[in-house]
Fold these 4 entries.
Entry 1:
Amino acid sequence: MDDLVAGLAVGREGDDGPALTRMGVQYLLVPHPATDPLTKVLDASPELTRLSRTGTFAVWRLQATSARLMLLQGSTVTPLSAGRVDARVQIPPGTGPRTLLLAEPADGGWRAALNGHDVKARTVDGWAQGYDVPTAGGEFELTRSMTMRHIWVVIQGIAVLLVAVLALPGAQSDTLMLAAEKERRRRGRRGRRRAPRVPRARVHRELPSAAPAEPPEPPEAVEEPSTEEVS
């Protein structure tokens, strides 16, 4: 789509307009047209018709027919009525192969049935959802599975509820207190790791000095026998 819009913006000749209508685009709006040089380019484009212009915006309409649901047969485009999501329409008989184009991205969420029978889907223009329609035509019914949408809605609701709970004053104070407590503990661990080790003082205990030994007593004098006793 960006390339097609850029082609219209520079006045490129080709099928940019019809290609945009196959994407469901019917109108172009330019804000502040008096100062935007794109205004003159769009006015000169043969694929566009200006509908209105004010000092705030200007609107152009693509001449090719566009709709959310289109029946394609060669270069003939027939718009069909469709709701915002689902569609039920009567397709008239035709004279050749036809394609039913839905201006929505092709994915596995769409289900189509023709006369009560499932219709095989295919990708059109490299991105859009399409279905082959037989020449007999019939009642075409298109539905969209909302399972994934419901899942996303539930996830978004849980996220919003969590943000609302965290925004409460009590939750904020508890969160700040918890963060402060974690920071205090972290700094405490860091301080203990960086604190220098103080060597333990060694205590020398002096043993009491031994009491001085008493001098040994002198041996008793042994009296030698006299000569008289010997004789």
Entry 2:
Amino acid sequence: MSGSFRATRCTVSRDGTTLTLAGVIDEGNRAEIADRLVSEVAAGADRLDLTAVTVFGAAGVHALLRGHRALPAGGRLRVTCGALTYRVLDMCGVLKLDGLTVTPAALDLTVIDYPTLDRARTAARDWAAHEGYPAAAAADVMVAVGEVVTNGLIHGAAPVRVRGWRAGRVLVVQVDDAGGRPLPPDAGFALRPSAPDARYGLWLARRLTESLTTHSAAGTTTVRLHFPAP
């Protein structure tokens, strides 16, 4: 099978042997998603990308297990997912199943428009959660990264690349846009709510991070965010 399929609040698309799901999986669309997984796995799909799934609980586990049972003898299903989905699968014992490999996604993606910005926000939050940050701290990462990427789309140029890594006890996120425009030295330090075009994005990002630095060179504007250990 090939092409895309839209269940209620969730899209399913296939490229080669990779099946990508995006959206919500819950009791309202569980049967539709499960049926599609079964048919695609039986037709040779062996990779499942769940990184763009925003809601994944018992219904998602049920759908995944049905797809797993459709594997041919000796087959293996390789799943990539966000940290919160990974946690659900771990709690349910799914990670121990034969023929199933589940890997939490790293934070390294490209944003080209606002739909992919939504995915970047969710990925940043899930990555921080996987690195041990509690919900409130992971939400700070999501908001700050979202504001800086938005700034890159509006004032810089797409594509905007988002990468994250751990440096000791601190999480570091680097956002590179293709605009190459130097940021003003006071960007994000002063808040001027009375200005007709006042923007709060970089100001907010600075207050959600331990430090934020900027650099522009060779057609790229780089913003690096450091998030303190919780």
Entry 3:
Amino acid sequence: MRQNTAFVIGAGASNDFGLPVGDTLKTNIAQALKQTERQDDAVQKDRLTVALRLVEQANMLLGQPVFKGTQRIIVGMPTAESIDNFVHQHRGDPCIELVAKMAIVHCILKAEHESSLGPSPNAPADPEYVDFTKDQNQSAWIVGLFKAVTQGATPHELEERLRNLSLIIFNYDRCVEHFLFSVFKTHYGFTSAKAKHFMDLITIIHPYGTVGALPWMEHESAATVAFGGRQLRGPDLLHLASNIRTFTESSENNDNFVKAQLAITNADAIAFLGFAFHPLNMRGIMPTSEMTQNEGRDVFGTAYGVSDFQRQRIMHEISQSFKTTKDKVHLLRGSEKCPSVFTEFFLR
């Protein structure tokens, strides 16, 4: 894969590693918040409970009780499209927004730890280690991406290929970064420093932020937390919540969406993986009229669980938004998942 390619990655892609999609995540959040209500002073409190108590004690919500936000989220989750949509529907309510962000960080870090990329019982005590012998990791779509990018490439040749790779990730987790950093070390025998150098060549954009930078990233402006955040405490959770952006925040002067638009504009090919084609997200990455797109390029992707009627509608929308003809839009049928994009279109 030598051409400039932009991958747009949604929750369905992280599901390959066992992370929750929208419905499961909102259920996990409701359950985590319910658990905070059951904890009293006689038991050791979990980090989410501690963080919520800190918000209350510091009067960060200017007199609004934290339990108001927790209760609204708990009762609202069964009928919400997702936690992100729920917060967007309650934009302007700082209590719901802050509680939701802390719950998102708490649940995503827990899901990272429990995922196939998380630590194994007999694995080395290395936060950067990934067990590539697990069936779930071997069959994941990202193995196809790695093979497509590195096919026949020496480290020197790989540098140019990675410069042509853009990953626009609509997930709060760091599964993609954690996997690629680790596989560069094991496959090419790189040191951590050299693996970081190669990771820095890839354009990686999280329009809605992440739960935090991984320690090897050495971000000056972002708090770092190991994959899975097992040792994270309540005060840390409160701090990390500021990394999360809502639909409303992201629609207002979001530099990450501008970067995503530029990546899409410059791409010779685009691929959507586990992406739900939400209208707000599609508008966010669609190049502006001032940007000159590569017309007639191929667009690939998944449409898992989508009816044929909706799939045709999405294909039409893609051809209009990204200045290509409908015969250049290749969306897999609703029964096919992310790995098939690479076996069908990128690996020959």
Entry 4:
Amino acid sequence: MRVRIMTEADVEAVAGLYARSWWFAYGGMVPAASAVPAVSAVSAVSAVSVIPAVPAATPVERMPTDRTRRVDLVAEEPDGRVTGWVSLGPYDDKGEPARATPTPDVDGAVHTLYVDPDRIGTGTGRALMASALTSASALGFHRVRLWVVRDNHRARRFYEAAGFHADGARTQVRVAGAPLAVVRCTYTYPSPPPP
């Protein structure tokens, strides 16, 4: 498995992955009628993703660092199947409690991370997160934040193992009419040692 920059050719595969993974993660937390149809999954992926004009073989380490400071990465199996997706960029604090206001010049965000349910526990998510954190640092972010559903215990354990910690910010979002409590987690890069 390798992690590479997402290209336009990956949108349909990522949309299918998104729909399967979303339902696997949240199916027991929201009404059954809210299953993510493939058409809306394509729209969701297209809306979130910033797809650069680079070849699919471009290594993550050589990604372009354009002004958007955003990148989408995919995990790809040797057979070419896309089995994971992570989208990151500047942190957007809209709707966040006023007590903690990060600055876009410092804080990045994992906007979404999904792994095909049959690849959970194989290292795919860890490889995506490691590449995302490396990319975020290369984009100049000093911290990376994300929001996670409070009751998604698997995801919370995953993020904690990756070095994120709940930072006290909480809110509630509505998904298909169902209220879901979410907590914010933060990853802070180690400070360089003094000279």
